[in-house]
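Let's do one together. I've listed all components of the complex below, 762 residues spread over two lines.
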Amino acid sequence: MPIRFVAAALAAFAFAGGAFAQLLTERKIFTLPQYTTVGGKTIKDVRIGYESHGRLNAAGDNAIYIAHFLTGNSHAAGRYKADDKVPGYWDDVIGPGKPFDTDRYFVLSADTLVNVNAKDTGPGSVDPATGRPYGMSFPIVTMRDFVNVQKALADSLGVKKFAAVAGPSMGSLQVMEWAAAYPEMVARAIPVVPLGLEANPYIIQTVATWAAPIVSDPNWNGGDYYGRAQPAVGVAEALKLAVLSARHPGWADKTFGRKWAAADRNPLQDWGNQYAIEGALEMATHMRAGASDANAFLYLVRAIQLYQVEGVAGIRAKVLAVPAKSDLLFFPDYYTRKMVATLKAQGTHVEVFEIDGDGGHLDGILDAAKAGEAIRAFLKK
Amino acid sequence: MPIRFVAAALAAFAFAGGAFAQLLTERKIFTLPQYTTVGGKTIKDVRIGYESHGRLNAAGDNAIYIAHFLTGNSHAAGRYKADDKVPGYWDDVIGPGKPFDTDRYFVLSADTLVNVNAKDTGPGSVDPATGRPYGMSFPIVTMRDFVNVQKALADSLGVKKFAAVAGPSMGSLQVMEWAAAYPEMVARAIPVVPLGLEANPYIIQTVATWAAPIVSDPNWNGGDYYGRAQPAVGVAEALKLAVLSARHPGWADKTFGRKWAAADRNPLQDWGNQYAIEGALEMATHMRAGASDANAFLYLVRAIQLYQVEGVAGIRAKVLAVPAKSDLLFFPDYYTRKMVATLKAQGTHVEVFEIDGDGGHLDGILDAAKAGEAIRAFLKK
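Okay, and this is what the predicted structure of the assembly comes out as:
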């Protein structure tokens, strides 16, 4: 497998390099003694990871919250160590002098309450009531739950108002929940590659198909696999589906073409012979699967399905929607258009800036810098 | 599960009703003593199903060939019995007085050499050399192989020239192969919801993800499941992925909305509770899975991956490309545009008629009548 194909496939997981001066950060932990979910269940000893950049002013109103995508986490910008190979996923737009300018703003980002990568609160954490991992007995959670915990974090840090709440993909769902749940606290909402104000049934089914290979993996074992063989094959298949949905034929043509995975192994001649794109995604997703919690993936899928913003009429934030032209997952022509129409009809200030390109949905993560000037201008409005 | 949801999901498999006078047909069998594949393997005792409508004229040049989609078969129009509930998949456009007018043309359509539904030649048929089903030892085949066998069928019937070769989705791949493989025999090519002239790596990976759940199903057993438990769960998952790719959010909104599969079972409360679209697709695909051969599905997936037309420069047919505006599988803005550019650059006569709608890729099957007048006009050119 040529290394460049693997690198290209790994890049699909969106850890882009930055061209600016080094920004260092650390992963901190926020704890809550207990939290009651939208579904009415109480979770004790909540722990989530977070990071921040810049300084909160005395008024507590120069904050920006960054919400992450499905397979992302709180590491939005900078590096934990100077020699980390890759910075946080939105390092291109967060930092000194960048669109989310850490010289001016206090930029905060946290792990979602259930997180694919983090080993804090979630199905993989220990249920204080049993002393064993929750597994699928962890409460079903929603985007609103994620935002409520983020709100508690913000309160604990003295944040009074967010100049903006921004985030790509699943982050955009949290952005709109923020604007509706805490309208007095959110001056601007910047949903990037946005889904809109609810999960359409098409997306409900799309993410259901991502979950299916995990549940079908015999190692999943009803979610009880901690300390045993992991359902890594199912997770890898889930990631393949997610990555593919988040890309575009233009990206595939440029990166792989119709090359075979091995130059002497023609797919016409043997079932084991693959195309380059298949081999690269296979390797990249299996590398990634080991670091991902299968149950957490299922919880996030359900949270996406449940997404339906309550309180849209109460939104007071100005909104800058940033779709990506080639997005084949959250189609601009359908989802963004619908959200913009709803918001405009109720008198909300809405602007749209479309990211040009052929990288698909992931342009909202990897190419967010293309919206940099639009974001700068919007933050002044 | 409300019946209308199931019906809507089943409609995704594209057997539309017709408004015209009853057309009756029968499934006939074409046999070839042997056929040597593009990959160099010889298959003995080839049998494929076919049907025809209308009469071939003395010159043998009033024929039209209709090529079917992935999960389709030779049953393109009319009914086998007067009380059949559904006619062939393109009954809206094939028949007396319809765009493919069976009063004027001899309309022929055949099963692909390997076919998901048919029980003739393919991995599920008996290898004369062993007396047992081939399974995955059946030769890997290509679109060109399908067309070569169709050519032998046409020769056997006295067809000298096709006024048109037409077909939707995977049928469009056969259409372009026909035009390139037998340029002197194809006056017009009508690829509907076309992929273009080769499978882009994005499609290569898309169909690979459809194959994955079959191979992961323990009942698949390396393809050796004949006379045993079938990999029906894997096939159902494969069909779910295929149907979803072939649809569009607009269709999903109109058909299902955010309704739950059962009105008293909120997906927020229990993992077993689903949305209506999930329940409907689950039921529809499991009903369908029993009639589909898992191995045949894998062979067609590989045939799609291998698709790359040789001899494009030799195409002499006039081409009418009929993309669907809302197609999220074979994107008009990428695939159709690319094909049209290539053909125009070499001086081929190319026209494009786009089917409007929000049904997705399946508009090319279910709503082909929208292109009816364009097809009529094109057949006179």
